[in-house]
Hints:
By secondary structure, the chain is α/β, with parallel strands linked by helices. It has helices spanning 3-10, 47-57, 72-83, 128-132, 154-167, 186-197, 207-214, 220-227, 268-281, 286-300, 313-322; strands at residues 14-18, 22-28, 39-45, 61-65, 67-69, 92-94, 101-105, 114-117, 141-145, 172-175, 202-206, 234-238, 244-248, 252-255.
Amino acid sequence: MSINKLLERLxxxxxxxxxRAGMDFYAEPPGTEFEQANNFSAxxxxxxxxxxxxxxxxxxxVELVTCFSEDAVGRFTANKLHEFGVGTSHCRIVGGExxxxxxxxxxRLTDCQSVIYRNGAADFEMNSNDxxxxxxxxxxxxxxxxxxxxxxxxxxxxxxxxxxxxVANTPVIIDMDYRPYSWASPEEAKEVYSSAISLxxxxxxxxxxxxxxxxxNVEGLNYASQLVTKTPEIVIYxxxxxxxxxxxxxKSFDTGIFPVQAIKPTGAGDSFMGGLIAGLANSMTLEYAxxxxxxxxxxxxxxxxxxxxMPFQTELSEFLKINTLSQI
Length: 328
C-alpha cells in the first residue's frame, strides 16, 4: 500500500484496536507510595484499551477486540469503555481462571512503581475466530498491541488479523508494546516481532523495543531505518525525552517533545498513538500528526491515570496554541 492510499484510508475515522485491556489502580492522592496508600482510584488500562479511549475522545469511531474475564473486573473494564464511547461488541467473555490484567500504579515521576498482574491474562485467550469476521473493508485501520504476540492463541489472532486486513487493503498499525515478563525469552520476542512488524504499514516502537528486534540496543535505530525499505510505509522510533525519529520511504525527520511538569511516566505511548492516528484521520500532514501525538503524550503525563487522562481535541488544540516543541 502506498503512503497516499494509506493516509486516505485512515480518513475513514473508524478503527479496530486489538489487544489487552484491564483495570488500573492508582494510589491516591498523587505522590503517594504504595506502602503509605489508603485509597486508590480505578481506571481502564492496558495498551489497546487506552489507545481505543484516546481515539474515541478525539472523535474517532473505535471498536476494541479482546477478551474479558467473567467477573467483576471484566465487567468494570467493559462498562468504563462504554462510558468513553468505545465499542465492545467484538469482545468475548471467557470463564475459568482467566483474568483481566490488573495494574497497581503510583502517580509520581521518580521511582514510580507499577506492579502488573497478568497470570492467566484474559486477553491472551483471544483467538483467530475473534478476528476472522471483523469488517476489515469498512474500517480505516487495524491497530495492534504487540503484547498480544507474546502468547498463544492471541499470537495467532494477531497474525490472522494482519492477513485479513492486508487482503482488504486496510492499513495495519502496530505499537510494539514489548513487556519482557510476558515472553519466554528475548530470542522468541525478536523472531515473532520481526515477522509481525514486517507485515504492517505503520510501526511504532521505542529504542528498547527496536533494540530487542535488532538483537541489541546499538542496532535498533539502524533496524528501524531499514524496516521502512520493506512493507512498512511509516516507522516511528521513539526516544523518550529526546523525541522521536520518523522514517518514510522518501524522507526521515526528527520531532522534539513538549516540556511539561510531569507527575508520572505512564500512558505517554498510548496517548501518542491516539493523537497521531486521530491527526492523520483528520487530514493532518504526517509531520503535524506526530506533533499532535507528542502533545497528547505530554498532556497525559501531567494527569492521573492513562485512559481517564486522554485529552479531547479542544484540549489538544489549546495546548498546541501555547506550547512549543523542544529542539533536538
